[in-house]
Amino acid sequence: MQEWFESHSVWVLEWPPHSPDLNPIEHCWNLLKKKLIELYPRLLMVGRSQINWTEFYEAIRAAWWAIPQAMIDTLINSMPRRIEAVYRARGWYTKY
Q1: What is the C-alpha separation between 21 and 81, in angstroms, rounded?
Q2: Count of domains forming the chain
Q3: Which of 2, 35, 93, 96 could be stapled to 63 by a disulfide with Cβ–Cβ 3.0 to 4.6 Å?
């Protein structure tokens, strides 16, 4: 895999062990869970064996599309600040 990255001029950042939430996708998952609960609170009351998986899938899709693009853009645009914070902390904990 490393060879492919190098041959395609993709820079791979080392992932600091003390910054597990540095990845903005973690925050997207959190936004999705919050939106799912907001739009479909009754899903919290349904047990796993009682769930209608088609309905659940559609609820997740609806919740995802209900997240404003601006929120996702903000997370993406925060990456330079996140990387700088990790650099300044020498790979240790950051507010992210």
Answers
A1: 14
A2: 1
A3: 35
